[in-house]
Amino acid sequence: MAPQATETTGAKRYWRLISRFAAASVVATAISQVVFLLAYSLGAAPVAATIMAWLAGAIPNFTLNRRTWGSTDRANLRGEILRYAIISVTTALLAALATHNAEGLARSLFPDARSAQVVVVWGAFLGTYAVMFVIKFFLVDRLVFPKQRR
Which of 47, 61, 110, 137 could form a disulfide with 28 if both were Cys (CB 3.0 to 4.6 A apart)? Predict the structure, then answer.
């Protein structure tokens, strides 16, 4: 019976973490999407809009995830920030690459339709973060807050 109780506890833990991680991601995504759409639609280059959006979303995302994993030890904060930053910056670089390439495609497909270009580039930005959601969850759990794994 004990092994099954452990599995249930582990499963419950992951459902709790994934739901809170998702909620934090929704907050960060909403912030970053608004910043990206505003910056890009007002004429910022896709890479610049991506960086602005990443900065706007990464800080609340880290803060909310730190609470999710129950990390309160100031001694671990520097390492957590560094590990999180590596994952987050990698995601931002992937999004910058995707939006840069999407802009080239959008301009060739819709040379005179700025709104269509914005939709295509925004889709690349959002799509990158959607794909990275699952990967980031496991990286955050295993690498950023490993001491909170019980």
Answer: 61
